[in-house]
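Lecture notes, unit on binding sites. The following record was shown on slide 14. It pairs a sequence with zinc ion.
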Amino acid sequence: MHANLAGLLKSHFGYSSFRPLQREIMETALADRDTLAILPTGAGKSLCYQLPALAREGVTLVVSPLIALMKDQVDQLTASGVAATFLNSTLDPRENRSRLDAIRAGEVKLVYLAPERLMSGDFLTTVRNWNVTALAVDEAHCISEWGHDFRPEYRRLRELREALPGVPAIALTATATPRVREDILSQLALREAAVFLASFNRPNLNYLVEPKQDAASRIVRFIKARGADSGIVYAQSRKRSEELAATLRNSGIPAVCYHAGLEGPERARNQEAFLRDEVRVVCATVAFGMGINKPDVRFVIHADLPKNIEGYYQETGRAGRDGLPADCLLLYSRGDVAKLIRFLDEIPDGETRDHARLQLDQMADFAESDHCRRVNLLGYFGEAWPEENCGGCDNCLAPRESWDATTEAQKFLSCVLRVSQTGHPPVGIRHLCDILTGSRSEKILMKNHDQLSTYGVGKEHGAAKWAEIARQLARKGWIEIAGGTWPTITLTADGMRLLRERRPVSLTRLMALDKPAARPRAGDIECDMELFEILRAHRKQVADAASVPPYVVFSDIALRHMARDYPVTDSAFLAIPGVGERKLADYGPGFIGLIAGWLETHDRRHFAPLAGFSSPAPKPPKPAVNSTAQVTLELWRSGKSIDEIASERGLATTTIENHLAQAIANGEPIDPRVFYTAEEEAEIRAALVGYSEEALKPVFDHLEGRISYGKLRIFRAFEAVGHPA
Ligand code: ADP
Ligand code: MG
Ligand code: ZN
């Protein structure tokens, strides 16, 4: 029925395979079904509506929130030989008219619209006279007040839909909490929409956390070690972003800053300089983000602690859109946590403040944890990840030294117990550390806590060390830190048992400074770097001549393939990923000439074959039952309950549930009724309808947290092997 999608993918965009979910999404859209696609940054959402636009009659309208983004996309399409244009307020009337004429004449396949266009007078009437066959809404979360980039103009999209009855719509976004997702579905009046939700894993990103010491010089060293690569440094304040940019420039690194306090023209100029590879680094506040489609951001550094994990995920997500390896470095200090806590005091509403505090604590926990960063990050979004070496985070690549903390754990836990036995309400970490170190502070004396048997028994460590121990004990589930703005500590049942049974405890040391960089790096493309640099310089010339950013000409991936395959014929050049027919015609001769010239004076080098670089598998390999899961399974077979196994092994119950899910997926015969009732099962099934997704958070939220993540995973495992009736 439709032109061959794979053929169009190659001839126009030069790619020979689809990224995960792309084909399914395109086919659904081409079947004229309303569609919502929630895929992480860099997953390739644009192609999901661009390719169908080429495959169908008529014109596809694309709504996109930022003028800069729109121009960028149209430049990229034009360079690939696709007839595309945009309409927004920057065009002069004559230009505007000629574009409208071309659209009416059916010469254009994709029209990008700024949402403010929808407000203007008779625009809807105009649109009705075009042969519009599809509507695409990019960054669709902008329609929701609950989202982080709400745009009131997006609300008018509804009128656009009404003006075009029967035209199917596709909405795309990288972020959609359940509330935002519901908003997108209802505001856009998507009917029986097919919802696609991909894994949030970014396989090519390396996550690194280091203690923050002498941050500016650490950042300089980090960037200097990365050749000509470009990246973003996020800072908490405008002033700091300016200072950091100045420091980098003084160290010989071309850098600019970007924040909401800059005048419009300066902001645009700085952004442009970054996109065009005229500066290597932008030092920015969180204001810098959505407009950045630059695919070759090779690192994102957080000079200060982000306020929550969602922000951290979004900001690090701007690295490595092209799928090549990229590093995300977070510089962490407890001092940053304290500073952010002080800002929280300014939030008037108690509930909002408590929520912000919780989110901040989760962020700090992430930074301090000795667990796989990927497991933690994806776990936050409700997504399971095999607890094996992920190969792309500091904790997996350079596991931390552990130490015997049995005595310390006993001292701390019994201190919590003693306080509770006095009948006082629970106290916070700081207070407990003061008791242990024998502080004579007013608060201690007032509560007579200098009379406790645990008073002063922990003088071998300072208060900061005790606080660090406490947070590790909390992460292991032996104490609970809870209670909004002024969190207090209580002993959990597990902690009580640990205390009674005097079981050995091992904790890990704080992260080390300057750990070896994460390697091997997922998606790396080894190539002849000298030739790569020559091709990169040529790309910059070609791009400048056409007034477009270099990545519009070719991606780094394409250049790397050229610098390892040495294509000197048209057909060899066409085989390079990202080279379609138009780019071959426009840029082929120049690049081929350079490569042929290079080969006259240099030998071809040979490189190891690449393992599936073009679609970095976002799905985890199906894990065999690994050794730790095997231990769980054996305890399970011996008749122990999940809680018993969890406390015996000192692991969280969700971890045990994950182990069991693995075992079930591997065929372990277990009765599902042990985990949930038939009613609960029906409820889970209903919540899962319509989603072909990896992330469980939406389902978890939908069920209002009544069913644990572990149970949901177990359900999934049963589904995978056929749920016994
Ligand atoms: P998103 O909007 O989801 O963040 P983009 O649409 O900007 O992602 O695509 C990210 C990058 O991936 C782009 O450089 C794009 O050319 C590339 N890309 C998209 N689909 C494919 C594919 N099937 N094969 C190779 N590269 C692809
Ligand atoms: Mg996009
Ligand atoms: Zn890891």
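Take-home: The first strand starts at residue 35 and ends at 38.
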